[in-house]
Write a structure and sequence with these properties.
The structure is a homodimer of 492-residue chains. Helices cover 35% and strands 27% of the residues of chain A. Strand 5 (91-94) of chain A pairs antiparallel with strand 5 (91-94) of chain B.
């Protein structure tokens, strides 16, 4: 193989880094913590964007764009919000460079200091609610259902490609409502859109739940989330939807006149997913040979590798491939014929496995004689020889099968690593193996904090989408009464 | 009318600002020079993006994403480049805020000063060529054909919505080639993609040409551009494509081994269009009633306004509209039924005229009796009554007609304001009226500079796409020999 990937067992963390860089998804840039998303990685992100954007529009949202910069004073308006973000802000202080009077390079021009510093947005609640103030007068102006696709910056100290980067790409929905009920409904609607996307497109099973107070978004009354399990048993928060109450409306004085003629503060939500989803996608499905992409998000569905010795054979094989390619493209699949002349077919096989292309087709001279082709599945690493006449229909069908198989595999894995835990001894033992621990919790931040200190595990969520765990019981740590089980896990 | 727009004649500049804000396209934000792009404006930009992205991909380009921040030292590597951008840079100097020890707000934490300042990208040549250095070893790695959709910041002192803002949205293509010829070909190919987009989608006639040295991109050997004429006779540069030679390859030491085994620097191009195109679109077609949108970029193609008195009439009219809407949507058109109950139909007519919706359909009780509808064209402000049975086919056809008519109108306008000028006296007189002056120029920056000082006119471009003006002559200012006419105009 051309580009060795270390095995998951040997070093899971390095395996992930290997995959991201060797499959040409992303790389670190010269700027600390900022990544370059390479064309192959960006093509996957574009597919995610297109599908999510469609789902947002189907649920009545429109896109808009708000400034990259946030005046420092805006951040301070909502007390918890500023506390949450102040420590990791990129701050713009000047607006001009000048030739260094003492050297050759350029330096910051001290005379171009800004009156008020600008923060590169870590999230846009403040600048958006300052804008909504001018858009909202009456109940007739509500709801406002806006989404923005944008880059944001959070100055993280320890970064990892896609999972935690100083700059990342995301979407942030910001909605304004006349009533509390409507805002809560929106918060739930959007977390369910995320869950549907994760399950049906990323083929990643997720738990929908509510965050504990400790893990809430800075400024939210409630944070809903989707949590996925990675192959090392760790949890990854893949999307969040916040019920913000009237916090930002109060901070920016956004009131509306109700139908009844009274004045009231507006209710808010915000919700977002980011390029972190790329990390979830990679870690949920990939194996020691490389990426495994679900067909619905794969930039290339089918790669074809010609096998030949003579020019004549080459010509005949490629002609057959072009014919099949046309048939597959007609069915909406994206097909690439890898006709490079400077690498062997074994190298090509390994490279496309590394890149996670769902199906590989190989055709050689003997296949032409027999009217057969070899079809290999990336998800199972199996291959079969079949009639060339049947291959288009077969491969189209395979896409659904692969999508389903990848999802089921992840679902089974999660089930195998999800434990109902009732004693503190068992908790401490199980958490070392990784996985989701379904436990009773007394509902206090103090207990959660102590469990975190002792085990590095946090409450990933208080599940909302299952009845099984709604039984009452006693806290696994304190023994105090609990209304339902929650999910504890170590997390990314 | 609900939202008055000042007439073009009265105050062209204010007319433009009126349109942008009153048609809900964009507004100024709380951050100096940064705009908020509102949902209706953003929907037009999304249509532009989708079409351009398609054209980029059809010409073999892939999207990628590079960091928002550029280390200060990178900017300095290419001498002309840094000179061009240093004076308008947003500079990040710190990465943390802290609670003000002397007050209530937050202040910049002095201990979180960056070792090297980061510039918010004004354009990405430097960070991208620093990345390409690691991607390119051999001729087999070339060409690299990347594009990025991103936000950029140039700290302009005088800003205008869409036309000149501190932050704007754009795409920037950055390509790397083995030969000079190939890079020049790419530069020309992309300026022609822009021209095609402007003409066929924006319905804006443009001249394709080359910039004079004075107007070149900082760091380019050649800048090609498309120039459009606005209704006040001023020129607007709508897109540029740069041949960068080996400047950035040399600045970042990017060499490749050729087929012959020698080492050579890589050749570069970059090309971009921005949200400035929105300004061009608005100013090229709109009238004193508001926007006039070409159907190919209109978020809503047809608006339907019900006319009724009783509830029964209302119900019947809307039912008919739903039927027609389904038919129009089947043909790929976007249709909105404006069924608001708190404004009159006259208000609605004016509002959708302001928003530039290409076709308006009104149906009243009498129409139902006669099986007719009233169809109004935004571009001509004419209306006709016609059989309801024929309306779907008619409106679908109208879209093409309107697209064509808008283009032709702009083309005729440009022709009427384009003058062949041979004397300096005539130049000074004509330039006051606005328009394109086709003049001979001696080819020196000095003459161009003097003409600019005396008349505020600059060379918009040395046209490439017409034979008419390839005649030789004498410079309109200096009388020295000239090889071809160039276009002088005042510009945005």
């Amino acid at each position: 193989m051309a580009k060795e990937v270390i095995s998951r067992e040997e070093n899971y963390s390095q395996w992930y880094n290997n995959l991201v860089t060797k499959a040409d998804l992303a790389e670190n840039s010269a700027v600390r913590g900022c990544m370059v998303i390479k064309p192959y990685g960006y093509a996957i992100w574009e597919k995610m964007q297109a599908q999510l954007d469609k789902m947002f529009k189907e649920t009545g949202h429109q896109n808009a764009y708000f400034p990259l910069f946030i005046p420092k004073s805006f951040l301070s308006r909502e007390a918890e919000h500023v506390e949450g973000f102040a420590k990791e802000c990129a701050v713009v202080t000047h607006h001009r460079l000048m030739v260094d009077p003492e050297g050759t390079g350029v330096v910051v021009d001290p005379s171009a200091k800004l009156e008020e510093e600008l923060i590169v947005r870590p999230t846009s609640e403040t600048i958006i609610w300052n804008t909504y103030k001018n858009w909202i007068t009456s109940y007739r102006d509500l709801p406002i259902l806006c989404n923005q696709w944008a880059n944001v910056v959070r100055w993280e100290m320890r970064t990892r490609l896609f999972l935690r980067t100083a700059e990342f790409l995301w979407q942030e929905g910001h909605t304004a409502h006349a009533t509390k009920e409507e805002a809560i409904e929106e918060t739930e609607k959007m977390v369910n859109v995320y869950a549907k996307f994760a399950r049906e497109y990323m083929a990643v099973p997720v738990v929908v739940g509510k965050k504990s107070a400790n893990e809430r978004f800075a400024g939210a009354l409630d944070t809903l989330c989707i949590e996925a399990m990675m192959q090392d048993g760790k949890a990854l928060q893949a999307g969040t939807s916040h019920f913000l109450g009237q916090n930002f409306a109060k901070a920016f004085d956004v009131k509306y006149s109700t139908k009844e003629g009274t004045l009231d503060y507006v209710w808010a939500t915000s919700w977002g997913v980011s390029t972190r989803l790329m990390g979830a996608l990679i870690m949920a499905h990939s194996d020691d040979c490389g990426l495994v992409l679900p067909p619905k998000l794969a930039p290339i569905h089918v790669v074809m590798v010609p096998i030949f010795k003579t020019d004549e054979e080459h010509k005949a094989v490629v002609a057959k491939m072009e014919e099949l390619k046309a048939g597959l493209e007609k069915s909406g699949l994206s097909v690439k014929i890898d006709d490079r002349d400077n690498v062997r077919s074994g190298f090509k096989f390994a490279e496309w496995e590394l890149k996670g292309v769902p199906v590989r087709i190989a055709i050689g001279p003997r296949d032409l004689q027999n009217n057969t082709v070899e079809v290999a599945r990336r998800d199972t690493l199996t291959k079969e020889s079949m009639s060339a006449d049947a291959v288009v229909a077969h491969v189209v069908e395979l896409m659904d099968k692969i999508q389903e198989n990848i999802y089921n595999k992840a679902l089974e894995f999660r089930a195998s690593k999800t434990y109902v835990v009732d004693t503190w001894e068992e908790f401490k033992e199980k958490i070392e193996e990784g996985g989701f621990l379904l436990c009773h919790w007394d509902g206090t931040p103090e207990t959660e904090e102590k469990i975190k200190e002792e085990t590095k595990a946090t409450i990933r969520c208080i599940p909302m989408d299952t009845n099984v765990i709604m039984e009452e019981g006693k806290c696994v740590y304190s023994g105090k009464p609990s209304k339902q089980r929650v999910i504890f896990a170590r997390s990314y």
